[in-house]
Amino acid sequence: MLPRARYRIRQFTRGLRPHLAPHEVAEARLWLTPAEFALFRAADPRDRRHSMDLFLLLRREGTSRDAPPSDEVLVAALIHDVGKGHLMTADRVLFVILRAASAGLANRVAAEHGAPWRRAQWRLLHHATLGADILRRAGSAPRVVELVAGHTGTADSIRATDPELAWFIESDDRI
Q: What is the pTM of this model?
């Protein structure tokens, strides 16, 4: 429990200053199609920072692995959270607290329609599917869509069938 709490605290404090350097924005532009880059630029600054950090981690770890990340994994890293939309910090914090307390409770309070805070919880709960739909409509590669759709799954359950997605999930959980 303590390592997870430390991770969440680090994640929160990192999100307080989510600036991307100009060279990082230029790097994203090189990897993404114009439609994907527009989605990247429209994302919440915290999600852009997180996505860039995941991209950099995967690329860095790829140099020491037997199988470096595919181009599709790197693209997916940059745009995997586009389904979240813009959220208030309080909604993000509430989501983490509810999920830590009880996944069932988090699922019960999330609602596609209703109070804004409940809609935010629903979006956070379903952001992988929402993001995959957005990317499919934007013309992203099928593998990118597949990675985004699966990135909130459990790495252990898919390690044997899709080791690249498992690595993606594990890396996302560390950033």
A: 0.88
